[in-house]
Amino acid sequence: MLAYAIRRLLLLVPMAAGMVIVTFALLLMVPGDPAHVLLGPEATPDMIANLRASLGLDNPWYVRLWDYFAHLLQGDMGRSIFQNAPVSQIIAGRLGATIELAVVALLLATLIGMTLGVIAAMRQGSLIDTATMLLAQLGVSMPVYWMGLLLMLGFSVQLNWLPAIGRGAPLLDAFGAALTGRPQVLADSLMHILLPALALAAYSAAVISRLVRTSMLEVLREDFIRTAYAKGLRRPRVVIRHALRNALLPVLSVIGMQFGILLGGAVLVEQIFAWPGLGQLTIGAISQRDLPLVQGITLTFALTFAIINLIVDLLYAVVDPRVRLG
Amino acid sequence: MAAEQHSDSPPVIAVSDLTVEIRSDRGSYPVVADMALAVRPGETLCIVGESGCGKSMTALSLLRLLPEAARVTRGEILIDGEDLLAMNEHRVEDLRGERIAMIFQEPLTALNPVLTIGEQIAESVRQHRKVGHRAAMQRTLETLQLVQMPDAARRARQFPHELSGGMRQRAMIALALACDPRILVADEPTTALDVTIQAQILGLIEDLQQRLGTALILITHDLGVVAEVADRVVVMYAGRRVEEASVYELFDHPIHPYTLGLMGAIPRSVPGRSAAERLTDIAGTVPPPWDLPVGCAFAPRCPGASARCFAERPPFEEKRPGHFAACWEHVHD
Known about the structure:
The structure holds two protein chains of two kinds. Chain A is mainly alpha-helical. Chain A contains 13 helices and no strands. Chain A has helices spanning 2-29, 34-39, 45-55, 61-73, 87-122, 127-141, 144-158, 171-179, 183-219, 223-230, 235-272, 278-287, 291-319. Chain A is globular. The model of chain A has no long low-confidence stretch (mean pLDDT 82). Chain B is of the alpha/beta class. Helix content of chain B is 34%, strand content 23%. In chain B, the strands form two sheets. Chain B has an eight-stranded mixed beta sheet with strand order 6-7-8-3-9-10-12-11, sandwiched between helices. The longest helix of chain B is centred in the middle third of the chain and has 18 residues, at 195-212.
């Protein structure tokens, strides 16, 4: 398993290289010139040409691509055109917030999705089943920004229970604070993250609940479930230990894919809830044509997604002994 | 087959009048009707019939494990004198695996793929005996050794897919025997196995049953198996008993044409004849349970059927001492 993990990690390198080339090509095709944006409408063609030369924008594309790769190998993602700081530093300052949001959303989605899915499967055809699946339909069809705005209107504006925008202390720090006798720091962090995480989780929770339901219904018809009952096991034990564990296998691989969707959704959710993460940064960078920053962010997203999927694949082997990695 | 040993003790399981119905879009129809059986400790009863004759449904109803669409509509299942059908769910769960256990046909699908053999057996032990983890594992190893699992300690830590078919069925038997059940129901326990392994597994079941004094109900379509292990035999056709007798009586004086047909269908090795030629099949197929004929269900396939056979169902009655059959054409001896 270790050898497999290492091999998969090494495979990330060509994947990342491909990712860089693709984003690079996309950005070449996008209209708009950062030098133009930077200098404003008053700029003369001369000034623009000078700036393009100093930013290296007038080099042919293969030179620029080569330069980018050469710097990447030294851990240098270039400098942001507008923020006058290294891209890696800007991203490092934001990445934590986005990962935190996505992970909390993923946990919420898994928890909600699995609970609803199991309940619906247990009571197939009942009112609970119908209601749950209706909810899931709603969750799948509702765009994440709309969900975010509704939650904000409901829980922040109308009920005034939760803060509408911003982020508390980073969760890891907040847990530390709670352990050293300041639980209000943790409470504040949790209250801030709840709404954006919920908005982000809704879609994934819906997808997971439908999948868990189908998967459970299938597994509950298996012979080994009958064997479990034949042993004299009680229903809850059969459902959780024998059925759910097997039903989780297809769900697990979907959870990995969902993480990618969560990262995409985070871009919108962060904008709505003023969450200081990569998503907010992305929107800013794109509208300013800050190419090095956009490239850096895209690469970061892609790597995060790939690593999460690697973790999911490894988990798969832990849950299903029939999977032999190699 | 020491029938004398157990002839005087009362039956541990006694079924009478059992009728199982299936509800579907075709409406309700019986898949088992007027079934009855009684088995004493150490005795082996074989239920024989083609697939779809209701023998598996009978077996499942003995543990109240019928699929959702099926239910017992009439009858009584007494386990040590206690009516299974009147019990609450918890009481049934206490009996399953403890008093009455089941061996399923296909051990690969009947065992949970993500739990080790040892975990699955120990789980049953812990459910019924209030013992800790270590004692349960100890009992698991004992049971695996009882079923002659090679290298038991290592196998206990393996998953079903890591075992051969024969070893999987040994594990299934160990699982069933883990809590010393008084009644063992085996539904085609050797059908999914290699021919060479079949005899081993059958021998193992028979040997353990004799040593432990278990009442064994063995479901099979194979009269060769019946001849090997049975004390008494019930032949089922289309959900009903058509013949019942001790194994010697049945093979010496078969009465029902269906039984005779089954006997003709036992493959025997005759030199110079191909396997296909050796197997005399019974012409036709079992009628579907939602479309049973009015009279004897076997009449359409019966070589000696008369007009009465098509009009009226024959009663299941004693034709010779201890030998019952349902057939119009056979007169009392």
